[in-house]
Amino acid sequence: MHFKDGNGNKISPWHDIPLKSGEHFNCLIEIPKNTKPKMEVAIKEEMNPIAQDVKKGKLRDYHGPIFWNYGMLPQTWEDPNVTHKETNCAGDNDPVDIVEIGSEALAQGSVEKVKVLGALAMIDDGELDWKIIGIRAADSLAAELNDIADVEAKCPGVISGIREWFRWYKTPDGKPLNAFGYEEKALDKKFALEVIEETHDAWKKLREGSTDKGKLWGRQGSALVTRFKELYKTCVCVGSVFHARMRPEERMTLRAVRDEMRLRKKGIARFNKRWRSWAQNRVRQFRLPLPVTLTSDTALMDANYITACVQKAAALRKHDVKLWFGYSNRILELREELQPDQLGYIMWGYGKSSFLDASFYREILPTIKEQVPNFQSHALMSLMWCLKRIRWHDSHLNRAAAQHALDSIEALRPSDFIKVTNALAQLGLRDTGLREALSRVAVPKLEETFAQQFRDAVNPVTIGRLWNDEVTAYLLERFRKIFITARPMHLLKAYESAVVCRIQRPQVWRMLSKDSKSFYVRLSQRHIADKGKEPCQLHWDVSRHLADLGEAHRNSFRWGPLYIDIGLEQIEVDERRRCVMVDGPSSFFY
User: Fold this and answer.
1) How far does the chain reach from its first CA to its final CA, in angstroms?
2) Is the pTM of this model over 0.90?
3) Of 160, 471, 518, 551, which has the highest C-beta tally within 10 A?
4) Residue 62 designated active-site
């Protein structure tokens, strides 16, 4: 009996069926109640089908029927290389067996959810062969049985019956009686769970290749390659990145594939020759995919997964309106379950995607207002960045964000502080008290940011709209200090600041304009092509900043045309190519 998944692909019941399903364990029924054929998962055959045991060329049967449903726990393995301390016996090299004591006969090959009740430590031919005792979760007796003591009380004779059946069942073949460890006692549920956890860890080591597998099927990487092949067939290529179409319940499988294929180079090295090249070529292109591409799948998402989906879709610039509406509806359904940081990251995704749905923002923002005081540093920055991108002006939310930034000023990273205050400035924080309070704590944070990354400290709107005169004076002095060594594009930011706040802070422009000639000279020397080469193309941002500065120079202060000799013959703005064309020695002016 072979097993297939929902797509019709063969799977291994031992390796591919998960051990747990919620609070219950999965049990694969090999031998139904009151039957005699000795059926078992063939652990040495490819894909581990259920097959009847064969001895000396003949199919094997028990000499009498077994009175309970008998099966195995997937993703467990009794390691023959490890000796158990209490019994002084090694494992029997099989998955862990389970005896299901429910009232109904279960179909062979069915996967049932069971409650674990206890365990027996059977010793068979000197090997430890655990027998887990459990009951199907849907059985009529399941509600009354929670531990091995309940079985003794509610079902007298069952434990002793199981013990004696397995003690005697091999004697008709001339073999000795089987023994039991732990003084033949039935061990409680807590102990049984420890056994399952231990054997599950042993199975993991088997799959990783850190344990000798002998002749067992499931060589390291075989299931991984099979799964990767299946996913690769469903992939959609966006640029050089492959994104698999899959449902949320498959995400852990895919994440495991991604981790194994990309990060475990030893695993890739152990693939056979045919698959090694195939895997290595595609691993370079494979990324954690956009897990959901169908709107209908959003109903299956939990809070963690919807957050991951929004972030991934935003990062991929996936502008699928139906998909984003599906995300929005699910987020609104889960808003009470979403953690503060998840809300921040979700808002970052919406800002990145530029998805504008006013009704969604109106409904989600009240929840965000309540949670803002609990936001971590990065989540607060993500929220404010989103509001800035979508230009959502909410005075109450702005005040709450500003107050939270002040309350958590010690924990707030300098770069996040700068981004939050930049957003507050652009959204128009009108509370004079909060603006003054932010200005009082700004200088240390600005100093740290200047030391780390000058670009983030210079925003074209914050000087004129947020900071007080003291902070503005600090910024001017800081600009002067770094003028000689700063990168030209960073200095353009400073000039842009002067353009934006030329009326409110004219001294900014006056200070920066003193150094304009040397600035333009440095800029031209950086970008002008060598003699004999094609005219160089300045970035469009450069030309835009130059034009803005010219307008500020001519219109705001009436200082007349500004002539700067920087050795240019001509300069023109090519609208079609969005660049500035520069060639030869001469001069230009605004």
Assistant:
1) 84
2) no
3) 471
4) yes
